[in-house]
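Example record

One chain of 299 residues, shown exactly as stored in the release files.
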Amino acid sequence: LASCSSDHTCRLWDVESSECRFVLDGHSWSVRHCSFSPDGGLLATASWDCSCRVWDTASGRCVCILKEDMGSVESCRFCPTNTILATGSKDGSFRLWDVDTGQCVHVLEGITVFKPFDASSFSPDGTLIATLPSDKECCLWSVATGRVVTKLKVDVKGVAFSPKGTLVATWWDGAVTLWTTLTGECAVKFRGKEYIADTCVFSATGDMLASCFGKKCFVWNADTGQCLSVLDRHEEKVSFALFSRDEATLATCSVDATCRLWNIDSRVEKERINRLWRMKRREWMNAAHCTGIRTAIAA
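Predicted structure tokens for this chain:
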């Protein structure tokens, strides 16, 4: 598990032992987001110091620094099929990078990164990337050409492709909408009795979807929109969630400086990584990402 924070560092954790393996220290400002490469061998970190760093997870060594005149970097995400990395910046642009060469291959212009962690998503086959030009629109771009393929008109603060790539999820506070990728038509829309979606993530098969809002995490049936579980033990805002590969466990990450592992069916907390580091006045966990390699998270 990787966690990044406002103390300028990113930490790699062994989920089985709850021990920190590496402290990745090199950024000069808050680290806002992190993303593992498809094989788990690399980790990208996005920072307000206007750079994105790529680290070797086996040694904790920085192998590449991606930096252009692009303002504070709010998000980063690896393409699932190759070494392309997407970064989102406060200057209103997304960049696609070749990690092997360190070169920027495309600049996707005119994008407002108002919700940095969920402002982009690659399709599973790596041919498309979804971004949010504004809070009223979601665009699907061709990774090969850097051009817009489809536009979805909807109130939106986050976007994610389903694992099969046939659906695109968009969300805004009180609702989650699933769209058909090929046609851009609405497939299903579901709501709760309260605000339900500040961030969302699909399970490995796409059968379930978790949405986080405030101190709660909601688990949904992605086909019907039925709410399966409400996980509400965190003391502060839940900023991130991640399913295990067998879909039996859900990890939630919170600004209360804990990660909790839940049994989805029983809603029982299986394990808690408590106070991941000594908290200072304005330091908190910004995001977390899991390789899915450790058995505590992945089957």
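Notes: Residues 1-109 form a domain with the Methylamine Dehydrogenase; Chain H fold (CATH 2.130.10.10).
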